[in-house]
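Check these lines:
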Amino acid sequence: MFDIGWLELIVIGIVALIVVGPKDLPGMFRTVGRFMGKARGMAREFQRSMEEAADEAGLKEAASGLKDIDNIGLNSATKSAKTYAKNFAMGEDEKTDTPPKTEAKPDAPKAETAPEPEKT
């Protein structure tokens, strides 16, 4: 949560030892530990209450339903695309299952070139 490494903890401990003193240091750590435990408990309870509210609202079921619909749509679209691509690659028309008619394309007119000038 706070991204504190071991080195930072050691520095905090040394500073606390100097400021608080060795006599009161265990009591201070105990108090800090209790405070952290209460804070974690409150966070855990908040998270549970939010999950319960989401369950009551039917959010999980709606999300899973949307995922199912999306998966079905993707699967059927993928199947139809694969079928179309397969038919196209084989040269079959999708509607009639016959090869498509090919029309002869006229040759492109050749570009006219200007006559070469006469050399004298």
Remarks:
- The CA atoms of residues 51 and 57 lie 10 Å apart.
- The helical segments are 6-20, 25-57, 59-90.
- The chain is about 65% helix and 0% strand.
- The chain has a mean pLDDT of 75.
